[in-house]
Design goal:
Strand content: 15-25%
CATH topology: TIM Barrel
Structural class: alpha/beta
Distance between the termini: 13 Å
CATH architecture: Alpha-Beta Barrel
Largest sheet: 8 strands, parallel
Shape: globular
Strand order of the largest sheet: 1-2-3-4-5-6-7-8
Helix content: 40-55%
């Protein structure tokens, strides 16, 4: 496999008109990917895609931006997420889960985010799976939860914010750092420094499709074929070829997600 995109959302409505055509093009370029769940419905769709195509895998989880308004609703959703993970062998992780204070300003809802994050860490431990972490403007609380709640199989900081403290502490905790389109942006002033901070055996690449298209495609719909631009950027900074980055990150993905 040339490249492995460890986080994409091909279930998104932006692909409704040409999803199968896009997936066929991805396959022709020898790229595999994980369709990442973020809600109950999104997790089900991710599993459906993984069942249909052998080079697509899935994760399941409730993201901080998809938390329901009441805890009762949340616990029901999480019971269903656990069932989906148990019953589907192509589910590789619990995620995306975590904290997002950029969109959520209400402290009561932030507290529910924190409870959901911890509960899904416990679920991952129970199911012997890693986690996929979403964090935005919540670095200190994210790290606090990870330090206070042991994550048995570690996991990935998906589309990792280019924050020195987060990367430094995340690596200390044994997590992988996944780079996405923002490392290619011309206004990402510390992208090179953050890339250099991450050892080769802890780096992953992703698109977060259909969002965050890398340069030179900013503003367009993203898909896993564009993961090569993230690999090119890392190769440039680390002084290696993009093919080497593709091989290293695929091997890392196989290790953390236990892909056989």
């Amino acid at each position: 496999m040339k490249f492995f995109d460890n986080h994409a959302h091909l279930d998104d409505e932006k692909f409704d008109l040409d999803r199968e055509e896009v997936i066929e093009k991805i396959h022709r370029e020898n790229i595999g990917f994980i369709s990442a769940g973020y809600s109950l419905e999104g997790s089900k769709k991710a599993i459906d895609l993984s069942k249909k195509y052998d080079f697509i895998y899935a994760t399941v989880g409730i993201s901080p931006n998809d938390i329901p308004q009441t805890e009762d609703e949340l616990w029901k959703m999480l019971e269903e997420i656990e069932r989906l993970a148990k019953e589907n062998s192509k589910v590789l992780a619990i995620g995306e889960i975590g904290l997002d204070y950029y969109w959520e300003k209400d402290e009561k809802m932030r507290e529910i985010q924190r409870k959901a994050f911890i509960e899904q860490i416990n679920m991952a431990n129970k199911l012997d799976l890693p986690i996929v972490i979403h964090t935005r403007e919540a670095v200190m609380d994210t790290l606090k939860i990870l330090k206070e709640n042991k994550v048995e199989n570690k996991g990935v900081f998906h589309c990792c914010p280019l924050n020195r403290e987060l990367v430094k502490e995340g690596l200390k905790l044994g997590f992988y750092i996944s780079f996405a389109g923002p490392v290619t942006f011309k206004n990402s002033k510390n992208a090179n420094e953050i890339i250099e901070m991450v050892p080769n055996d802890k780096m992953l690449i992703e698109t977060d499709s259909p969002y965050l298209s890398p340069e030179p495609l900013r503003g367009r719909r993203n898909d896993p074929r564009n993961v090569k631009y993230i690999a090119n950027k890392i190769a440039e900074v680390k002084g290696m070829s993009s093919e080497e980055v593709g091989k290293i990150t695929y091997e890392n993905a196989k290790k953390i997600f236990k892909i056989k």
